[in-house]
Amino acid sequence: MRVLIAAIALLPLIQTGPPPAAQAVQILLRHFEPADRESARYHYVAFDVADGTGTLTINYRYTGDDGTNVIDLGLFQPGSLALGSAAFRGYSGGARRTIVVGSEASSPGYRTGPLPPGRWHVLLGLYKVAPGGVDVTVEVTAAKHSRPSAEGADDPNAPATGPAPAAGVAPAGRRWYSGALHLHTVHSDGTLSTAALADAVRAAGFDFFAVTDHNNTTHSLDPLPGAPLRLVGEEVTTPAGHANVWGLPADGWIDFRVRQNDPAAARAIDALVAEASRAGALFAINHPVDTCAGCSWEHAVPAALDAIEIWNGGREPQEPALAMWDRLLRSGRRVTAVGASDWHRAPAPIDTPAVRVLADGLTQAHILDAIRQSRVIVVRDTRVEPPTFRAACGSSTASIGATLVCRANEYIAVHVGTNGASGGRADLVWNGERSQSKPAGGDVAFQVRAASGYLRVHLYAADGSTMAITNPIHVAVR
Fold first, then answer.
1. Contact of 259 with 265, CB cutoff 8 Å
2. What's the confidence (pLDDT) of residue 264?
3. 281: helix, strand or coil
4. Best exposed site among 229, 273, 277, 351 by fewest CB in 10 Å?
């Protein structure tokens, strides 16, 4: 990295009306080579904020901003830059070139509140640096008394800052609830406000949804009266894989700045999972095998992983993701499979795929507990009814997510209700391998000899497309 210039100027704000407010403008220039990206994915540009500052406006631009280079943006107020720092003020990635952070209004993705004086840092994430390098210009304008509107604040589709919503609504008893677990808004790289997304979720037939913007949860401060149940989520977007966290407190945050080749990276990821767990949230690996740079999961699999995304958008589940899930299950791990649209904008379908969750009520606590217990079926869309799935041996019975205890000489009777898949087929998967396949329609019965392992069902439509994938029933032999 090369520092080219750092210039500070005091300028008047030209306007009519009240007396002009003094503004301090700091212009910071940096040059990065590919080697800088290899040595440290995140670089920090320091600037000073004076006492009494009410608003910061940060503009940045860089050469090759046509995909040749890709530089992300974040912000830290005075304090530690270590992993998990409370000094984190917000993140917009590459979604916008100008952000406003203030005591009364801020751009989506950034926290509103007092601006403490001292040494601040702009975070520059070197997502992509061309062989010839990249020149980055950062312009910081600090205003003491003016109150410029945060980007999007005058847009009717923009979020309003307000109190966090309640964690849930009155329980409605145990039943299957339809959920969307991976959605984006204008608080990262989506196109809809939180309120507009809630309307789209309702129209698609979901009972609950999780907003999982990249590396921030400022969406959680947008009020959503009368909306489907919202889970406060975050897509923790590390340089070596993405993960969703569901059930954070309002404006909570899980750090993302862990590279695969960082010293003690595995311990750092485990620490992030533990932090999510302490907050009452679940941690799930997203699209573990993907084509975009940094999207596939290259970290060690966390010891306390709750879930894994086996179907991300598109019309079919990802076979490498299914294989990874089965490897975890065969090793004895209890990891829940989920699917989600990873929705950012129309015309992509918001409900392909979706999940059905067998929960004791429509509250955040009930939904998270059901996902934790693997009472989840991944379905093609919200119109697919979840198949019934139960197994029995001797006097023991079990359903999805539970453990069936059998004797070694017993047979397991498996029943799958497939009324919605007439003309298709049902596959019984035993320890990751397809064991049996039968035409779907009505109640389909399978029988297998008892052994330690797990059973799950893959249901296909008449055209061969996937309709549903169940989580397993585990089998223990005594």
1. yes
2. 86
3. coil
4. 277
Amino acid at 283: F
Q: What angle do CA 74, 222, 206 make, to 5 degrees?
A: 110
Contacts of 139 (CB under 8 A, 6+ apart): 25, 26, 27, 28, 58, 59, 60
Tokens 């503009």: give the residue: 59
* Edge-first strand listing for the sheet containing 388-393: 396-399, 388-393, 411-417, 443-449
**Cα–Cα distance, 166 to 246 (Å, whole number):** 15
Report the Cα–Cα distance between both ends of the chain, in Å, rounded.
Answer: 62
Looking at domain 2-143, which CATH architecture does it have?
A: Sandwich (2.60)
User: Looking at the domain 388-477, which fold is it?
Assistant: Immunoglobulin-like (2.60.40)
Percent of the chain surpassing pLDDT 70: 90
- The DSSP secondary structure of 350-409, one letter per residue, reads TTSSEEEEEESSSBHHHHHHHHHTT-EEEESSTTSPPPEEEEEETTEEEETTSEEEE-TT
Architecture of the domain whose range is 175-379: Alpha-Beta Barrel (3.20)
Task: In whole angstroms, give the CA distance from residue 187 to residue 96.
Answer: 10
pLDDT in tens, 239-288: 999 999 999 999 899 999 998 888 888 899 999 999 999 999 999 999 99
